[in-house]
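During the no-cost extension, the postdoctoral fellow (Dr. R.K.) reprocessed legacy sequence entries with the updated structure-token encoder. One reprocessed record is reproduced below for audit purposes.
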Amino acid sequence: MLGRMADHNLRDVGGTPGGLGHFLIGFAMTCLGGYLLANQVTVGGSYWDFYGANTFGITLIPMLFGVGLLFWNGKSAIGWLLTIAGALFIFGGVLANMHIYFRPTSLFHTVVMLVLLVGGLGLIARALQAQPAKSGE
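Re-encoded structure tokens follow.
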């Protein structure tokens, strides 16, 4: 691993020569665009109503049983299956009962948020490609 990295310098991004500037600017743009977009989203909860009212506690049983099996034997396939399946069921139930709204904003602000997000991702992808050698190097 260190042998492959010996001929690269800090400006090399993604194992290709050059691109650090594009990567950092793209990363900053992506973070800012993602933050601004997520800041416009309002999330409201609802009551848990899978298979009837007040059944959230029942959905915890398989996951907790799986966790108990994993504490007893960390290599237990059934323990892992119950834990992961129970967690996915709970996560799905929470997502299914959420109300997600995009708060009203101007078209200009929406375009700025999306351009920052997608433009930043484009710059990150560009930085991961091999950069052409500059004349004089």
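DSSP finds five helices and four strands in the chain. The chain has a mean pLDDT of 83. The remaining legacy entries will be reprocessed before the final report is submitted.
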